Amino acid sequence: MKILVTGSNGFIAKNLIQFLVEKQDVEILKYSKESTIQELEEKVKIADWIVHLAGVNRPQNEQEFIDGNVGLTDKICSILKAHHLKTPVIISSSIQAERDNAYGQSKLAGEQTLIDLHQTQGNPVYICRLANVFGKWSRPNYNSAVATFCYNVANDLPIEIHDENANIRLVYIDDVVETFWHIIQGTYKPNSQIFGVEPEYQISVGQLAQTLQDFKNSRKTLITDEVGVGLKRALYSTYLSFLSPKQFDYAVPKYGDQRGVFVEMLKTPTAGQFSYFTAHPGITRGGHYHHTKTEKFLVIKGKALFKFKHLITGEYYQLETTGDEPRIVETVPGWTHDITNIGDDEMVVMLWANEIFDREKPDTYVMPLTV
């Protein structure tokens, strides 16, 4: 299958092309502003699908809106008509087409050109009115406020906000790309001729700025927000894409004494924290109990002896585990516990606690184990 992608050097196109590269039996035909009209005609004639992403959104003058958002669409349709080709076309329009401004009207005119193609020749057309698209490889001060804010926050530049309560409608680039692919595969059929990508998110300008600043601050606080789902997942990925290679790493605090070291790695508001510690041969760590807090230990190097004693009944239990055996050992409220390095080498242990350590209320009470 041959897929022609116009605007191939643009933000959306770069993501779509990379997505298509990963598919089997897909040949990508590219058209950019550096290409000639002759090249366009040759590629339109052999394409099985056309994904028309080329457009202008920040011109020097309003005529560029017409040339970029209407003229090229007219040319593609003219080629299809001249050769009686019923090639399906996906076009990226904009929610601005609903507004009475030069950009919106140029997008609306481009839509109408495709609708005319469908009505006169029967080409399947898919007109996608996109909200503000954000994601990796977007350009600051060009593609969206998200790109600009991400770039500025990552580079310690000020953010200019005119109305922090103003809402922005957003769609994530991966959702856009997957929607286009599902249309090509025939697994997604819009309910109407003009449609939008889902999910569409809304966030105020002030909330967006604060969210991105929280991402930046997380390297100091170690507190990472819920970045595994929804809008925050997409924003976090986008923010990270604006880091330069020299920003890929950062230091975390390390606390050491004669027993070994303790390092906190990551804290979350609702899912506890992750850390690791080491212990020299013969060293015992722990010797305390919790009322509510729970922990999971994973020995990743060395040999460990875990001991437990019930506070009320005095019941005693012990077990051994090594770094060669991926085995989680959990601490249980109401049992005092400790861990001893019984090997000949340094022991390294990964630790998860279900809550962030609170120095004002640590829920940790010293009680060495005695059998």
Between the first and last Cα atoms, what is the distance in angstroms?
A: 72 Å
Main β-sheet, spatial strand arrangement: 2-1-3-4-5-8
**What would you call the shape?**
elongated
Main β-sheet, in a few words?
6 strands, parallel
Task: Quote the average pLDDT.
Answer: 94
Low-confidence stretches: none
The H-and-E topology, N to C, reads as EHEHEHEHEEHEHEEHHEEEEEEEEEEE
- What percent of residues are in strands? 25-35%
Helix fraction bin: 25-40%
Q: Treating each run of at least 4 consecutive H or I residues as one helix, how many helices?
A: 8
Count of distinct strands: 20
Q: What is the rounded Rg?
A: 29 Å
How does the helix and strand content classify structurally? alpha/beta
Summarize the structure in short:
With 371 residues, the protein is α/β, with parallel strands linked by helices. The chain has eight helices and 20 strands.
Fold blueprint:
Blueprint: E1 2-6, H1 11-21, E2 27-31, H2 37-46, E3 49-52, H3 63-82, E4 89-94, H4 102-121, E5 125-130, E6 132-134, H5 145-154, E7 167-172, H6 173-185, E8 194-195, E9 201-204, H7 205-221, H8 230-241, E10 254-257, E11 260-267, E12 273-279, E13 284-289, E14 295-301, E15 303-310, E16 316-322, E17 328-331, E18 335-341, E19 347-353, E20 365-366
Parallel strand pairs: 1-2, 1-3, 3-4, 4-5, 5-8, 6-7
Antiparallel strand pairs: 7-9, 10-11, 11-12, 12-19, 13-18, 13-20, 14-17, 14-19, 15-16, 15-18
Helix pairs in contact: 1-6, 3-4, 5-7, 5-8
